[in-house]
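Hello forum,

I keep getting stuck at the same step: I have a sequence, I want structure tokens, and every attempt I make locally crashes halfway through. Rather than fight my setup again tonight, could one of you with a working pipeline run this one for me? It's a single chain of 162 residues.
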Amino acid sequence: MTTRDLDPLECLLAERACERLVLELVHRLDLGEPSTVCDLFTPDGVWEWPYDGRRIEGREALRAYFGSRPVDRLSRRMCTNILVTVDSPDTASATTYFATYRVDGYTEGTLVPSRLPANVGHYEDTFRRVDGTWLMATRRLVLPFGGPTERLEAPTGFPASM
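Reply #2:
Ran it on my machine without issues. Output:
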């Protein structure tokens, strides 16, 4: 079966389901509970960062990794140009461009002055339909622009240990 043999409506639904996964993942990292990102992956799902050799494999490892995110981290990821390609009735791939704005040392309710993104690059994702549900199988982060996460100074009027 080729992708031309796929029903156009089924192809469109698959594309939208995969796009939704990309957006849900970003939402969970920035505004939700980061440790639940693992639920969007297949049980053997992988997230890798080739530029520094990191590779997290399996839901429990993903839960532990993203659950260990600093509690004072503020991040916002801007994702765009999500191009999903349906390869078969149960597999797809996508490329998504992103920019990540991120600081540590954030205090709830404070306004962080504008700054450049910490990272700019793209994700290369693969998806697999498991028991009728689309899940992320792999995420590879391609990072041509990146730097360390800035740590904000403690707000005035509060001890540095808070």
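Strands lie at 41-49, 54-57, 74-88, 91-104, 119-130, 133-146, 150-151. If your local run keeps crashing, start a new thread with the error log.
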